[in-house]
Amino acid sequence: MHPLLSRDLKRLPELLEQARNYAVSVLADLPSRPAAVPPAPKDAEPLPEEGIGSAAALEHFQRRWATGFSGSAGSRYLGFVTGGATPAAVVGDWLTGVFDQNVVSSSDSCATDLERETVGWLRELFGLSAEHSGAFVTGATMSNFVGLAIGREWVGEQLGVSIADDGLAAVGDIPVLSSSPHSSTFKALSMLGIGRNSVRRIPSLPGREAVDVDQLAAELEALDGRPAIVVANAGTVNTVDFDDLRALAELRQRHRFWLHVDAAFGGFAALSPRYADLVAGLDQADSICIDLHKWLNVPYDSGVQFSRRPDLQVRIFQNYATYLGLPGPDPDFVHLTPESSRRLRALPAWFTLTAYGRQGHREIVERDAALAQELGNRISAAPHLRLLAPVRLNTVCFTLAEQPTAEKIDALANAIARSGQTFLSPTVHQGVPALRAAVSNWRTTEDDLPKIMDALGCPAA
């Protein structure tokens, strides 16, 4: 054994204690760590030839890189839709690395059963039917990819072919209908060979990002029975708008289409009776995307996908080899997702659900939504800012009150990032350059709002 490896093995408990102490100090400093740290140019070091051992590597990391990391795990990071990691989720994530399970096959470990149990809990949490099966994936992009892949295979089934076996050439173009698809939908369609240009944009309701169901029905009618994929939204990224999922499901009585719902973070509305109506009908979807490192507050990367057709899923993703075996009635995960090597992403989710239960995570959703509403109220009261949409759940979309331009918004976003007080994502909503504040961290409280408003040019009196 290499001498440094041998030394580290003998000192492993001490090394883990050092890492624990450092991690504790990082978490303790989160309130004062800048929410964002715009990076300065840094020359890459050469590959180490001899190595320096774990203890020295930890010290080198602290000096060279740690100070440049953002406070994205903290309470005032409002960019993108980024959750933190609950204490239980951190424990689960550390143990994921310790046990280092490859959740591919059920032949050597109960890890697959833990993932199935956790998927079952999540299915219940989001109010889905027992007909929905699922698996952990890396996040929303891969969840959308899997759901749309199954939808692609369903279209082939309707036309009497297997696209998984014969390719897209066997069916030609596949219509994809959506009003406000997320960018990851286009990425998934590109990877699937369906193509970004396959999307037919359906008009939204006036002043909304939700699809006009009548316009969608007319577009489906024009397909004259040709099977299609409809991508619905349960929480758009800019204004957290929701398609009428029940109305979309009813359209299937007259038209042939696969209903895929992107509920990456909006699906968490199901946790609260106050907001559950927003996702009424979610259980009628054929496939569903949920991003867990958003509002479940587990570490990156973690998502889950659900579908009603595991048979089609296996047809696409089966990975037969003599050492893996054929997929059976309860197929191993190697046959259900693109990955043949799978980290035990379910463990942090299992820990946080076990530790805090449905009620604990409901409290996070309701508190974050209330804070977003209050932030929206304060922004509305600021003379130099204006809201661009109602605060429906946990995201505030706003802009400058006078002559907002891309240049002005970018300058404001950069100034906010440099301040370290908070971090917001720039966006464009209905042609207007804007900023977006997404509250999805379990740590965020009312005490954070004055600092956020101060960064927006509204100091406390």
From TrEMBL:
InterPro entries: Aromatic_deC (IPR010977), PyrdxlP-dep_de-COase (IPR002129), PyrdxlP-dep_Trfase (IPR015424), PyrdxlP-dep_Trfase_major (IPR015421), PyrdxlP-dep_Trfase_small (IPR015422). Belongs to the group II decarboxylase family. The modification N6-(pyridoxal phosphate)lysine is found at residue 294. The lineage of its organism: Bacteria, Bacillati, Actinomycetota, Actinomycetes, Pseudonocardiales. It comes from the Bacteria. This is Amino acid decarboxylase. PANTHER family: GROUP II PYRIDOXAL-5-PHOSPHATE DECARBOXYLASE (PTHR11999), MIP05841P (PTHR11999:SF70). Transmembrane segments: none annotated. It comes from Saccharopolyspora rectivirgula. Its cofactor is pyridoxal 5'-phosphate. Pfam families: Pyridoxal_deC. GO terms for molecular function: aromatic-L-amino-acid decarboxylase activity; pyridoxal phosphate binding. One of its GO terms (biological process) is carboxylic acid metabolic process. Keywords: Decarboxylase, Lyase, Pyridoxal phosphate.
